[in-house]
Amino acid sequence: MSHTAHIPSHRKPRQRASKSALRAGVAGGFLSTIAVAGAAGPAQAEPVTQTIEMPTITDGLATAVAASAQATQQVALDLETQASEDAAAEKAAKTAKKAHAEAVRKDEARKKAEAAAKAKAEAEAEAEAEERAERASRTAERTTLSASSGSSDSGSSASAPSSSSSANVSGSAASIVAFAKAQVGDAYVSGGTGPNAWDCSGLVQAAYRTAGIDLPRVSQSQSTAGTQVSLDSLQPGDILYWGGAGSAYHVAIYVGGGEFVGAQNSSTGTVQRSLDYDRPTGAVRVL
Asked: Is 248 part of a structural domain of the chain?
């Protein structure tokens, strides 16, 4: 046995026990601290839990966003509806304006048509009155011509009427004038050559044919068919023309007494008028 075997201080048992106690104390203190912290922990964490509440905030935000989106969509629908209503109103206004303009145009056209119809009716009535007067005059003229012809055939010494329209008429001129006057009241037709409708040159040609004279058909040629004479020295049977010689647009027959017979136009037909009614440009003498 060693001479140190019984020395208790060599193992230092008390020192170990002290360290163990110290360690135990430290450990116990640490655990006590943890225990105290654990006990105090729930009391301090409660305000944090009540303040955050993340699920509650998230749900409210989603609801607000959904409501905002719905409101935005409603505003867009309202704007679209308003735009459609505005467009419809503008289209309706344009349609109404166009319809009004069309109605005004039709009303004006109707008024013009009514005015034209009224003027035509008045002109026809006037022409009819003139035609009746001309026919009465033509009947009287034919009666006079028949009476004159009968007196001549019976050898009577009675003289012809001394009116200025027939005082200087004789021979071929008398035949031409008589034919022309007999057609007064007939219709005017462009290109007409009788027996009941004439144009101006057709009437002149037919009248001269009764005297055995064949004239050109158109007024331009008839205006140069004879010798040019002054309007102050006219004789019954002379051809009157309107326009230039060789380019005349109208012709008629001078019947004496300052009057002519001509197929004037479709409104008046064949008439007997004073030279002052429509002053001719010139005249030619064929006889």
From this structure: yes
Q: Up-side HSE of residue 90: CA atoms within 13 Å toward CB?
A: 6
Is 101 a domain residue? Answer: no
State how far the Cα of 229 lies from the Cα of 206, in Å rounded to an integer. 22
Tell me which residue range forms the domain holding 25: 19-52
Of the residues 52, 72, 94, which one is the last residue of a structural domain?
A: 52
Q: Give the per-residue pLDDT at 164.
A: 40
Contact between residue 197 and residue 266 where contact means Cβ atoms under 8 Å apart: no
- Does residue 46 lie within any of the structural domains? yes
How far apart, in whole angstroms, are the C-alpha atoms of residue 156 and residue 141? 20
Whole-prediction pTM? 0.45
> Which residues of the chain carry a pLDDT beneath 50?
1, 17-18, 21-22, 26, 30, 32-39, 41, 43, 45, 48, 138, 141-143, 145-167
Residue ranges of E strands in the chain: 187-188, 197-198, 227-229, 239-242, 250-256, 259-265, 269-274, 282-285
Q: Left (φ > 0), alpha (ψ -120 to 50) or beta: where does 116 sit? A: alpha
* pLDDT tens figures, 133-183: 555 554 554 445 444 444 444 433 333 333 344 445 668 999 999 999 999
CATH classification at residue 276: 3.90.1720.10
pLDDT of residue 274: 96
**Does residue 252 fall inside a structural domain?**
yes
**Number of folded domains that form the chain:** 2
